[in-house]
Structures are given as structure tokens and as C-alpha cells.
Design brief:
single chain, 2 helices
Length: 93
């Protein structure tokens, strides 16, 4: 049996709107900013939720070397684990 394809097309405007709503473009913007600030960046990093045994995804993992001690061959790194969230209302801390 041949599969039927939908003839519905999606406009560029609809694609852009869906991307904005998903938060993907915001994640990419943050990743680029980190890279421009000399961070090593990975996006959409999969990991196992050890409590539930399910696969999860981290939006951004980034590392940056801040110090290297040559005589001991030791590096000191910062690591950032980033979840990007889009809220309609501002957050208060």
C-alpha cells in the first residue's frame, strides 16, 4: 500500500514562528554568545535521568579554561550547565 503524503505546505513565516515559540533560536543565541566569549559549547546534550531512568536533554553545556599550572600540568575549568526558558512574564528573584 502506497503511503499518502500531505500536500500541505508550511510558509517560512510559520516555520520562523514555530522556531521562536520553541526556544530553539534563543538557545542558539546563548550558545553563540558563549562561544564568542571563548567557551567550548555543546548544545542539546543527552543524559540519563538517574532517578527515572529516562533520557533527558540539556540545552547547553559549556566549558572554559581559566587557569593552567604548567609545573603540575593541571588545568582549572569552569563548566556551565544551561537550561534556556522562555517566559511571557518577567522573573523576580
Amino acid at each position: 500500500m502506497a503511503s499518502e503524503r500531505s500536500s500541505t505546505t508550511v510558509s517560512k513565516k510559520e516555520v520562523l514562528s514555530a522556531l521562536k515559540a520553541s526556544g530553539y533560536l534563543f538557545e542558539q543565541e546563548i550558545a553563540i554568545r558563549l562561544e564568542n566569549d571563548n567557551w567550548f559549547v555543546w548544545t542539546n546534550v543527552a543524559f540519563e535521568d538517574q532517578d527515572l531512568g529516562k533520557s533527558r536533554e540539556l540545552d547547553i553545556q559549556a566549558r572554559r579554561k581559566v587557569e593552567h599550572i604548567k609545573e603540575h600540568n593541571v588545568g582549572i575549568w569552569f563548566e556551565a550547565l544551561v537550561e534556556c526558558k522562555r517566559f511571557k512574564m518577567p522573573l523576580a528573584f
